[in-house]
Specification:
- 35% of the residues lie in helices and 16% in strands.
- It is of the alpha/beta class.
Length: 231
């Protein structure tokens, strides 16, 4: 008898558990990271252990996929070890949104020193690119959605864990449920769950930004979480 599919939506769907990386010093200092590559700070490493502990008690994933940036990769390695998963794949497709001229700036300074780039970041126009080589929301969505569709094709009926970044996860949730309001609600190591059909590309959002594992430890902080600038 074959095992029951991991997704409640049936054997054609992959259950994709999307985790935001742990905190970095740049998160704590309100510095725009984008595709720059700071590592986790001590708080972030503790958060990674907590989310890994939570996931290790749930259905075992078939694989862990992650952005190749250090803050995500280290979070993913902690999760893979706790879940006893050897299949860990790092890929640029899961990186944070490219922030162009805003990379490395303090959030508060960006408004003053690069008003055009800040305006582009804040724009609801999905084709608006950020000056300095930055991505539009549409470009970000195309990148991560196409990658996760390919992951779902490989893992029909299975659970996989994906470790990524705030703005990228916002786009994943928006694609799964365009009516959802998750902006700025994706804290560090939060868990979102999307069911993706490996057959027809249908997406269903189950939850977004859940941090119950941090609440349980009395560790939940007023995280500067979820928007593209902090991610």
């Amino acid at each position: 008898m074959s095992p029951a599919p991991a997704s409640s939506h049936g054997e054609q769907f992959a259950e994709v558990v999307v985790v935001r990386h742990g905190e970095t010093a740049w998160n704590a200092g309100r510095t725009i990271q984008g595709q720059m590559d700071p590592e986790l700070n001590e708080t972030g490493r503790q958060q990674a252990v907590m989310v890994a502990r939570r996931l290790s008690k749930e259905t075992k994933p078939a694989a862990v996929y992650s952005s190749d940036l250090k803050r995500a990769a280290e979070t993913a390695q902690t999760i893979a070890a706790a879940c006893d998963v050897s299949n860990l794949v790092l890929d640029r497709a899961l990186r944070e949104r490219h922030m162009g001229d805003l990379h490395g700036l303090k959030w508060d300074d960006a408004v003053r020193t690069h008003p055009e780039a800040y305006k582009a970041l804040s724009s609801d126009e999905r084709n608006q690119e950020i000056p300095g080589g930055g991505e539009s929301l549409e470009q970000l969505s195309d990148r991560c959605v196409s990658y996760l569709n390919s992951v779902a094709e490989k893992h029909k009926g299975e659970r996989v864990i994906v470790v990524s970044h705030g703005a990228t996860i916002e786009e994943i949730c928006r694609h799964a449920d365009p009516s959802s309001s998750v902006q700025r609600r994706i804290p560090n190591t939060s868990v979102s769950i999307v069911h993706i059909s490996g057959s027809d590309g249908h997406w269903v959002l189950e939850k977004a930004g859940d941090v119950g594992h941090l609440n349980d430890d009395g560790f939940l902080q007023d995280a500067f979480g979820g928007d593209g600038a902090s991610a």
